[in-house]
Amino acid sequence: MNRWELRRILEERILLLDGAYGTEFIKTGLKGGIPSEILNVEKPEMVLDLQKRYVMAGADILITNTFGAIPMKLAKHGLEGLFEDIVRNAIRIARKASRGKTLVFGNLGPSGELPEPMGNGNFDIFYENFRKVVEIMLEEGVDGFILETFSDILELKAAVYAVRDLSEDVFVIAHLTFDERGRTLTGTDPKNFALTFEDLDVDALGMNCTLGPEEMLPVFQELSKYTSKYLSVEPNAGMPQIVDGKTIYPVGPEEFAAYVDSFWESGVNILGGCCGTTPKHISLLKRILGRRAPVERTPKKVFAVTSPSNLVDFEDFVVVGERINPAGRKKLWKAMLNEDMTVVEKEAKEQVENGARILDVNFGVERSISSNFAKIVVEKLPYTSAPLSLDVQSVDLIEELMKVYPGRPLLNSSRAVHDEIEERVRILKKYGGILVILAMEEHVPRDFDDRKKAIEKALRILEDLCFDTNRIIIDPVVLPLGAGGKAVDVLKTIEYVKNLGFKTILGLSNISFGLPDRSSYNAAFLVMAIERGLDSAIMNPLDDALMKIMEASLVILGKKEPPKKNVKTDNEILDIILSGKTERLLEIVKNMVDNGATPMDVVEKHLRPAMEEVGRLYDKGKIFLPQLIVASQTAVPSFEFLESKMVGQSGDKAFVIATVRGDIHDIGKNIVASVVKSSGYKVIDLGKDVPNEKIVEAVERYKPVALGLSAMMTTTVLRIREIVEELKRRNLRVPVIVGGASLNENLSKELGADFYARSATDVVRFLKEIERREKN
Amino acid sequence: MPRVVEIDPTAVKVPERVISARLGFKGVGRIPEEFRNIFEKAWREITKVSTPFALLEDEECVWNEYLKVREIELKSDLVRKHLKNCEIVTLMVVTLGENVDRKIEEAHEDGDELLSYFLDGIASEFVEYIAREIEKVLRKDKEPLVGGARISPGYGDFSLEMNKWIVEILDGERYGIKYHPESFMLIPRKTIASIMGWRGSE
Questions:
Q1: CA of A416, closest CA in chain B: separation in Å?
Q2: Which of A317, A341, A404, A638 is 20 to 30 A from B16, alpha carbon to alpha carbon?
Q3: Last residue of a domain, one of A556, A571, A596
Q4: Do the Cβ atoms of B185 and B177 come closer than 8 Å?
Q5: Quick one: DSSP state of residue A492?
């Protein structure tokens, strides 16, 4: 069945996928650690039997047993020689089990390698591996593809292109797997996924694995808000638990099926089960779903570009950093020629730290730079900085870069020239992204009329090419004043474009080219352009005066909230804390007290909010653990100073922490102690390998807000239960927060703990929650 | 008597990418510039104070349902899978020595949690990379025998309690290697105990 026929069916009813393979095979004798794909050649009857049971259960689509069948993954088990047999047999077995009653979808899973710099994979490796599988699957006549359990957007894109390069008629479902925070391993959230894949030629988007139906539902709902593609979902049968050394999935068929209505209401079109689900789960889903039609959705329109962990929405004014451009910058030019990534990364980091939300990347005279280096920059940089604007002229290079870009980029740019737009539109239709349209034809525009004419022409060309004009942004073309450029014409063009309903972008620094005191001209022109409705500018974020004037003009024009009175101070404190300037912070804190602020005020209004912001930055992945430790170490002396000034006022905020008896790991516990201390609590750190008795006595003595227990190993986690029971026995009511490598949410509850902390910032959050509850 | 192999700590190489990931710089691939000094300081300290060595001993083994070494049956599916068909096993302990623990502790006591954290993270990778080097050498020495995966107590269903067994066979205490009597964690902390199986190349 081709994708168009299947799409017609999906307008009518929801289709049912099958359930888990791996966990079912383990039940019938497959040993852990052995790839289940080997069964396709060694024990095909096992696969056939399971798939028959899924057909009996009512699945509409059988997925082939090929999740780990790409050559590089099979090679890890020495099975690459069997690759072709494994893949071919998988499809033949599924067809045999189906006997024409179901569709058969080829299953592709991730390679197990993350792209550089997190791992050793890259686009080309991924693509080649997927393509080999897809070729065989198409030869064997699959009805569609499901690309499942991907945790990185670039790898998923590679899999999509591998399919689409070989067939435009086959249905494709693309899934990411999200954690409880709604992020993939490389930081993509569902909104980002929806926008990035909206442009690509896939039929359905969705998610599977990692989460049970309860945890997956809100993540799925977020995805459904932003995509117009069909929606697919396969939750696990709950979050896995280890019981007696075995992995158990706790959500049975009835509980699993209870979520059908919620997924249906959220717009699901294709539903199935992942790890831990069984033919019984699928059978019950079938009974509930029947031939139910899908609900209609109207996805939200968002104009944004993305990188794996960032989405930049043009609702707010966007600064596009201009500095990754070797024109007139010898050092950068040399670094690019020498393929020195560190200099490019440094430029990127500085710009992002100073307010750039997108980075324009220009390789100068492109023939001088190796296309391989350009690819490395475009493939790797978005993982560590911001989305990119690819300021590239050669069509071949554009195609190479767009292919490996991990997200949805800006493509900068095209003149209103038919062939130029056509070439770029072809690439954008395949790889996604937003096109910058220059308000000029072959020649530089002389006035507003030339620009208007060019824009009208570009829009006609785009319409002829059936390209979605929601994916363009218009550049009114700024020419240097010194060369006779007229700023007034540019301003008029911005107004004109805004009236047409399009977004605008311009290259700001062009205005002052060749003039003295360029910053003033840039700033003055930017203010005027913002006033006319400009949405973004390619500019220098390291020009402090320019950035400040821009901020002020956005506030004056009502495009941004005015800063709160104390924001400057708090930001200053935050910066000092993050940069580890302990003495400077202490000096500021002492000055505040000397000038009449009460120590409690300094804590509550300055230090604590700053540390809360540090915690938020860490939770969002904006800073790393070592930076959290630096921040904590920086804040502690100031807290201690303030504490010494308010004797008797803070004694009720104690926190007792210990690593339990038998456990000699204490690094995690020490970090928690340090972070909690820097949030204004008095921390009683009892150390490591602490007897139960000593812990209980400390609770009795200090009456803390909470007790923190760290237990790293399976042999020591049981101490937690003993301590909780002893506290109860002595009638000591204290919330217990636990953490450590062998623990998880469920096990913590079983052991009697009140909170399970994954990180030090979790502990601070729980302490605040406990305090809030007590107040109420 | 186990074979004792001393290792020159200055010859140990650990990719910066690995340490950077261990220290929590996710997705960065190297130590950020602002942490370069403390990283280098911690690296210097670890190479200075660690006294790495390995204890190794080969043992005959017998297969019934499970692998049996010195009359002890290793009731673990993981061991059974990874040591399948092996003829001999090598028991191994690799340690950085107790000075490293002391250094990490000192930094903590001085209130320098960041240094303590860096020392701990670097040391964890350091000992792991030494174990990998030893493993590499063993694989070469044992040719034409083929080695399976090196597995340690605490992996999967291979009980942590087996740390005690390995340390006792290797007479670890004599070389300063102990285990915690309740949790079976190894002391010094930067110590790895493991087992590898060897089978004929056919």
A1: 39
A2: A404
A3: A556
A4: no
A5: H
Chain A, chain B: beta-carbon pairs less than 8 Å apart: 94
Structure tokens at A37: 């794909």
Find the residue in B nearest to A580 (Cα).
B34
Full-model pTM: 0.62
- B94 secondary structure, DSSP code: E
| Nearest CB partner across the interface for B117, out of A663, A671, A715 | A671
CB contact under 8 A, A689 and B81: no
Phi first, then psi: give them for residue B154, nearest 5 degrees. Answer: 105, -20
CB-CB neighbors (< 8 A) of B32 in chain A:
624
Residue A24: is it exposed, middle or buried by C-beta count within 10 angstroms (0-12/13-18/19+)?
buried
Phi/psi at A699 (nearest 5 deg)? Answer: -65, -45
Chain B: residue whose CA lies nearest to A629: B114
Contacts of B201 in chain A (CB under 8 A): none
The two tokens of residue A199 are 């442009």
What CA–CA distance (Å, rounded) separates A282 from A640?
59
CA nearest neighbour of B177 among A662, A652, B185, A175: B185
Query: Which of B183, B184, B187, B189 to mutate to test binding with chain A, by most A CBs within 10 Å of its CB?
Result: B183
- Element housing A150 (H / E): strand A144-150
Residue A90 and residue A12 share a domain: yes
pLDDT at position A459 is 97
Q: For B52-106, what is each residue's pLDDT tens digit? A: 999 999 999 888 888 888 888 888 887 887 787 888 999 999 999 999 999 999 9
Q: Do B28 and A633 touch (CB under 8 A)?
A: no
Q: Taking Cα atoms as reference points, which of A130, A136, A28 lies closest to residue A89?
A: A136
Residues A675 and A630 in one domain: no
**Chain B contact set for A621 (CB, 8 A):** 26
User: A664 — contact with chain B (CB < 8 Å)?
Assistant: yes
Q: Indicate the number of domains in chain B.
A: 1
**Looking up tokens 């475009």, which residue turns up?**
A378
Task: Give the model's pLDDT for residue B201.
Answer: 61
| pLDDT under 50: residue ranges of chain A | 564-569
Contact yes or no for A384 and B184 at CB 8 A: no
Residue range(s) defining the domain that contains residue A768: 651-776
In this complex, which of A116, A625, A636 lies closest to B24 when CB atoms are compared? A625
